[in-house]
Amino acid sequence: MVKRFSVMFILTILVAIAHSAAVAEAGDKAGSPEPVFKHSDVVFMYASDEAAYKAYGATFVAWGGANSKERVKMHHDLGIRCTGSMWCLTAGAKTLYENAELREAVARDIEGKPIEVSWLFDHTYKDMKTYFGCTNHPAFREHSRQQVRQAMAGGADGLHIDDHLGVAQAATAFGGGLCDYCVAGFREYLKKHATREQLAETGVKELENFDYRDVIRKVAKTRDEYMKVQSKIPLIDLFRQYHLEAVADFVRELHKVGEEAAGHPILLSANACLPERRHVVVVKYLTHVVCEVSFNARQGTAKPDDAIAAFEMARSLGKPMAATASGWDWSHIKAKNVEELVRFWIALTYAHGQWFMVPHPQRQWCFNNELGTHWYQAPIEAFAPVYQFIRKNAQWFDGFEPIDASEIKTPANVLCTARRKGESGPIVLHVLNRDYDAEADRMRSAKDVRVSFPKNMLEGLSGSARLLSYDGDGEDARIETDGDTASVTIPELRLWMLVVIE
C-alpha cells in the first residue's frame, strides 16, 4: 500500500540509503562473505517437492519450509540451500484468541485500540480479528524469538523474516505504534536524536516523563483524526524513523537468535519491499532481499517501472534480490489464466541482474479485495523451460555485471540491458519484447530487430555474436559497423533473446 510521507521523512530515509554501503563496509552486516547467489541460480519461494525442484533445476528455497533436520537434509541431498521463515506481522487470530498476553501485545492507536491488518480481513477465528503485533512489546518479541528458534531448529542455511516492519508498518501507515512500550522507546530515542530546537518547537521542557500521546491528543483524539492530520503533528518524522530503526535492530537480534538455534552462521533475508523507502533501513543488516514487487499486471508490459526501480535500488544498496510479484499481480494472472506475462517478468528480472522466484506449483499467494487470500497453482510446463534455459546457459549469466546501456538503441516496445564479465570480457545483451497482446496472452513477434550500440564496446572482443533464446535454437549473427556505431540484427524476437558478444 503506497502512502505519502512528509519531505523530512523522505529525506531521512534517503540519508539511510546513502549510509548503507558505509555501514556494511564497517562490518555491520550479517552472514557469509561469499556471494549469496550465482546469477544462474533458480530460487523457489516456498518449499516444494522433489519433482518440482528437478523440473526447474532449483538451487535455493528462500521463504522457509526447512525447519527440521529431516527437511534440511532432504534439500541438501538435492543440492539445494534452504531457509526457515518467521512472521513479524501478527501472532494470528487463533493465537490472539487463545493467548491473553499476546492479545495485549498488539499495535495500538491513539485511543489505545488494536489495529487490524487490513489485507487479512478474511483471517479470523471465532470473534477475533487479525491485529498487528507490536515488535516493541516484550511478549510479542519473545513470541517472535520463539518462532525463530522453531524455524531454525533444523540448522537451515538461512532465516527469512516476513513482514519485518512489525509495528513500524502500523506506525507509518495505519496510525499505530502508540502503546506504552512504543511511547517509552520513543522517549529514549528522542534523548539521543532530537535537537533542542525540535523539542522547544514542540513545547517539550523535559523528556524524563514525556508522553508523545499528549502531543498528539492536542490535535487528534481518534485514529480517524490522526490519519487526517498526522503530517502536521510535531516530531512525526522522528517518530516514524524511531519505529523503522527499532524494528531493524530487532531483525538484527533475531538473526543472532537464529544463528544460536542453527548452531552456525546463517544467511538473513527479509520481505523488504523495495523501492518503498520504509524498507531501506533494514537492508544494511541483510545478506539478501527476498520480497514482493509490483509488476502492474493489469497494464500488461506497459508499466514495469516499479519492478525495475526495485531491482536497481537493491543493486545500489549492494544486496541481491530474489523477487516475486505482488499478491494483486498474481490474482490477475490466476483470474485471466495468462502465462506469457509471467514469463516476461522472469526475463525482466534476470535481465536486470536479479532473481525471479519460481511461480509455485501449489501455493503462489494471491490477493485482491474481493477474495482476500487465495492461491495460484502455476503449471510447471509453462515456466520450467525458462529456468532450464538459464541453468543451461549459466556461463552467460554467472559473473556478469551491468554496464551502461544508455546509448544502446532499440525499436519501440523493445527493452535492452547490457552485462559484461570483468572489465574486458564477453558482453551479453538481454533483449526483451514488450509488445504484449493481452487478449491472446502472447508477445507479438518482431522481425529484424536492430540493436545498435557504440562501436567502442567491442574493444578487446573478436566481434562474433550468438543469439540464444529459451524457445528456439541458438544461431550466429553478424555484427555490422558504421562509423562509431555497431549493430546486430535479431531475425525474430519473440519474448527474450540473449545476444552474446565475445
Fold and architecture overview:
By secondary structure, this protein is α/β, with parallel strands linked by helices. It folds into 2 domains: 7-30 and 62-293, no CATH class; 399-501, Golgi alpha-mannosidase II (Immunoglobulin-like), CATH 2.60.40. The chain contains 17 helices and 21 strands. It has helices spanning 7-25, 50-56, 69-77, 93-98, 100-104, 138-151, 167-173, 180-193, 196-202, 212-217, 223-229, 236-262, 280-283, 305-316, 327-336, 340-351, 380-392, and strands at 43-44, 60-61, 83-87, 158-162, 267-270, 288-293, 321-325, 355-356, 364-368, 372-376, 400-403, 414-421, 427-433, 436-437, 442-443, 446-454, 465-468, 475-477, 479-482, 485-493, 496-501. The strands form 6 sheets. A 6-stranded parallel β-sheet has the order 3-4-5-6-7-8. It has a 6-stranded antiparallel β-sheet with strand order 11-12-13-21-17-18, covered by helices on one side. Helix 1 (7-25) runs parallel beside helix 12 (236-262), helix 6 (138-151) runs parallel beside helix 12 and helix 7 runs antiparallel to helix 12. The longest helix has 27 residues, at 236-262. It is globular and about 75 Å long. The two termini are 45 Å apart. Mean pLDDT is 93; it is low at 1-32.
| Biggest sheet statistics | 6 strands, parallel
Whole-number tally of structural domains? 2
Average per-residue pLDDT, rounded, comes to 93
What general outline do the C-alpha atoms trace?
Answer: globular
Overall helicity: 25-40%
What is the beta-strand fraction? 15-25%
Find the count of extended strands (DSSP E, 2+ residues): 21
Distance between the termini: 45 Å
Uncertain runs are 1-32
Supply Rg: 24 Å
Task: Briefly note the structural class of the backbone.
Answer: alpha/beta
